[in-house]
Amino acid sequence: MLPCRVKLRDLQEPMSRRSLSEPDGRVAGAALALRGLAKQYAGASVVDALDLDVAAGEFLTLLGPSGSGKTTTLMMIAGFTPPSAGDVVLNGRSVTALAPERRNIGVVFQNYALFPHMTVQENVAFPLKMRNVAKPEIARKVTAALHLVQLDGLGARLPRQLSGGQQQRVALARALVFEPDLLLMDEPLGALDKNLRSHMQFELRRMHATLGVTILYVTHDQEEALAMSDRIALMNGGRIAQLGSAEDLYERPHSRFVAEFIGETNVIEGAVAEPGVFAAGGVRLALPDRAARAGAALLVVRPEKLALCSPADAPAGFAGTVRGLVYVGDCTRYRVEVAGGLLLTVQTPNRRDGRRAALGETVGIALDPADARLLPG
Amino acid sequence: MARAALWLFGGLIALFLVAPILVVMVTSLGSSSFMAFPPRDVSLHWYAHFLGSPQWIGPTLLSLRLAASVAVSATLLGTSAAIGLARGSFRGRAALEMFLISPMVVPVVVLALGLYFLFSGAHLLDHPLALWLGHTLLATPVALVLVRAGLRSTDRSLERAARSLGAGFWRTLRHVTLPAIRESVAAAAVFSFLVSFDEVVVAIFVGGPATTTLPKRMWESVRFETDPTLLAIATLLTLLAVAVLLLGAWLRPGRQT
Ligand SMILES: Nc1ncnc2c1ncn2[C@@H]1O[C@H](COP(=O)(O)OP(=O)(O)OP(=O)(O)O)[C@@H](O)[C@H]1O
Ligand SMILES: [Mg+2]
Question: Which of A23, A221, B14, B149 is paired with A324 by a 20 to 30 Å CA distance?
């Protein structure tokens, strides 16, 4: 379904960047750098010598399976968890030794962590009060922040009198009102239903574009990561498996883990036997890259890059029997068993002129070798 | 049928538990100097006697003052210790916690005896300070356990949020942690008060003629005289305990919506 998605940020109109207080073109965000950041619990490495640079004003997402160390990384940056080794650098200055309250980093927690005994107004005013901002200034900024998250007029409510989505917005307003150098968000939309989620994704992108704050965002939802981020750091086992744009990760995965974690993919285990030819069972495919190293290799190709054709037109071995078929509205997904019992997934858009196949039919699979990725096996 | 039997059984047990208190309450309403149940007349004679007699009012005031001081000291100590234990990370934390709540499990007589020797060495016997220290020792673990439970059930991310928003440790404590556990702290104060106000063993060991608390005075009254004033006081104490319980229920978290 991923390829059928429209990127949210393509939809938004260009907006001038401005901070909450100054309507000029200032970019509020700071650059973040992690240098060999590591955390061990009882000898077990949870975050393993992480190096990461986040540019000022960038929206970078830490994506990864459960337990890959995303939250731990965020907690070390915020200052709640002391790192076992390494450095957190904000705008060129190491903050590793600073207490959390002195880092000027906004944090949005998954459960929002609104102060239950304070009104919305008081919650949002809290960081300003802690910074001894003058009362009229506080009132002005709180109003502006509540306006930014579209909660005008709800200042007198208590958090428990708000819906989940509204609480989420209050948490966001509170984390933004003091113009932090960096905004950390740990699965902030995890508790919202699907519609509200995609609405909030859009809102977050809008605010990011408006304010220019640097955002480090954590999620294990790949669609969310692809939709929102400038760049994605895909984590696995406490390390970054690959860092790049959504397109980099989707189109040019560096490893089997990345290819399989992001979207759906066909992985064919085989080898490069003679120069420029990938072979696996009965499958043979000439590669555009003639320099591919001989030896065990994986051929990775997305289902939507494949198409149905007549068996005669298919590359060697790429013809077989339709074993399964799922109609998913905008496209149809076929499971085709080809030579050597290999099962490939083919996804074709449901157009009137598109080629269809029935269960049990013999079909060929068309494939442009340029769409396939060769990975070391 | 089985239900009716169950109700009857439960009712009998409840009656058995409540009967002595009811008998004391009813008997206290007589006016004769011999305790009689049921009383031959109904009057507040012994209540008036209690309020008018310095040998009862003195100990009552002492006990009230003492319990109030203990409520303050034990709540302060217990709350601080609970916060340190819950939020600190240092070696031997579990052992320290066990040590701090140990006065709850050591027999009171043993503690009282220890305090007796300690204070006689320090020439503090029969001094209000000795009672205050002794009762604080007994009440602090109670306060600690109550506040510790309150802290366990509060969300740590609230405190983290406060820190990230620019509040240091103390301001986080004041603006976020303490408001979140205020019911537990209030309960700690109430129960510390009761621990001291009820306490008789330590009072007997380290108290003296100059520092006779109300429970000690009652105990002496039972031993050396048979004064129906005792019944009036017992009734008042029961009513006080009920009032405190109701107050506690009223302070329960989640009551307000
Ligand atoms: N205080 C701790 N003591 C011991 N192990 C911990 C501690 N905190 C986290 N871990 C371990 O570190 C690993 C990474 O945890 P972390 O919370 O960073 O994962 P995550 O990527 O945020 O996962 P999720 O998507 O489930 O939130 C897990 O295996 C977890 O069990
Ligand atoms: Mg997590």
Answer: A221
Q: How far is the CA of A68 from the centre of ligand 1 (A)?
A: 7
User: Whose Cα sits closest to atom 24 in ligand 1?
Assistant: A66
Give the percent of chain B with pLDDT over 90: 56
| Superfamily of the domain at B21-251 | MetI-like (1.10.3720.10)
Amino acid at B248: G
Cβ atoms of A150 and A199 closer than 8 Å? no
Query: Chain A: nearest CA to B84, how far in angstroms?
Result: 17
d(CA B2, CA A199): 59
Q: Whose CA is nearest to atom 12 of ligand 1?
A: A46
Of B123, B125, B101, which Cα lies nearest the Cα of B113? B125
User: What residues contact A123, with CB distance under 8 A and at least 6 apart?
Assistant: A114, A115, A159, A170, A174
Give which of A86, A78, A110 is closest to A181, Cα–Cα: A78
Structure tokens at B104: 């709850």
Angle, helices B93-101/B128-152, rounded to nearest 10 degrees: 130
CB contact under 8 A, A175 and B176: no
Residue B245 identity = L
| Cis preceding-peptide flag for B38 (omega within 30 of 0) | yes
Query: How many CB atoms sit inside 10 A of residue A325's CB?
Result: 17
Q: In terms of Cα–Cα distance, which of A119, A229, A130 is closest to A177?
A: A130
What's the CA gap between B71 and B139, in Å, rounded?
8
What is the average per-residue pLDDT within A285-295? 76
Angle, vertex CA B234, rays to CA B233 and CA B239, nearest 5: 95
What single string gives the DSSP state of each residue in A282-315?
TEEEE-S-TTPPSEEEEEEE-GGG-EEE-GGGSP
Chain A partners within 8 Å of B179 (Cβ): 115, 117
Residue with the smallest CA separation from ligand 1 atom 30 is A67
A237-255 per-residue burial string, b: 16 or more CB within 10 A, e: under 16: ebbbbbbbebeebbeebbb
Nearest residue to B60 via CA among B237, B239, B206, B227: B237
From the number of C-beta atoms within 10 Å of its C-beta (0-12, 13-18, 19+), residue A32 rates as: buried
Q: Which atom of ligand 1 is nearest to the CA of A73?
A: 18
pLDDT digits (tens, 9 = 90+) for A112-163: 999 999 999 999 999 999 999 999 999 999 999 999 888 999 999 999 999 9
Nearest CA-CA partner of A357 in A336, A328, A374: A336
Contact present, A151 and A120 (Cβ < 8 Å): yes
Q: What is the mean pLDDT of chain B?
A: 90
Q: Which two tokens stand for residue B181?
A: 């556990």
Q: φ, ψ for residue A253 (rounded to 5)?
A: -65, 145
pTM of the model: 0.81
Burial class (CB in 10 A: 0-12, 13-18, 19+), B249: exposed
CB B25 within 8 A of CB B35: no
Q: Which amino acid is at A346?
A: V
CA distance linking residue A308 with residue A218, whole number of Å:
38
Is A41 part of the contact surface with chain B (CB cutoff 8 Å)?
no
Pick from B98, B42, B17, B72: nearest CA to B189:
B72
Q: Is A316 left (phi over 0), alpha (psi -120 to 50) or beta?
A: beta
Distance CA B27, CA B240 (A): 18
